[in-house]
Structure formats: structure tokens, C-alpha cells
Amino acid sequence: MGFKEEHSKWLAEHLSRRNGERKGRLERGHAHGEKMFMEKIWWPMFGNFDGLHPEYEVTRCST
Q1: What ranges in the chain are assigned the alpha helix state H?
Q2: 45: which of 3, 14, 51, 53 is 20 to 30 A away, CA to CA?
Q3: Which domain of life does this protein belong to (predicted)?
Q4: Interval 18-47 mean pLDDT
């Protein structure tokens, strides 16, 4: 499969494993920049999306 098919499959898999706000953030936040990174950098280097996570949570620290 090519990039488009694998990207769709990868995104659908991650969306199916999330709910609530985590799912909402992924739906809203995975946009042009993220997709371009995957297509132009990650895919040519690795040819798959193994080990790639769509987002990283940043917890708020109180200081």
C-alpha cells in the first residue's frame, strides 16, 4: 500500500482506540503540518508508521 492508504489506516486505528477529549484533540489537531511531516519525512525514511504516535500529552506543571 502507498502513503495515503497507510496514513488513513494508521489514523483510523488511533482514533478507534481513543475517546472523549483525547479523540477530539486527535480529530481537530491532526492537520496539514502533521500529515506533511509524515508524508515527506517519516514515510520516506521508514516506509511505515510503526512506533509513530499521533500526539504526545504534555501535562501542566504548577510552579
Answers
A1: 3-16, 20-29, 32-37, 43-46
A2: 14
A3: Bacteria
A4: 91
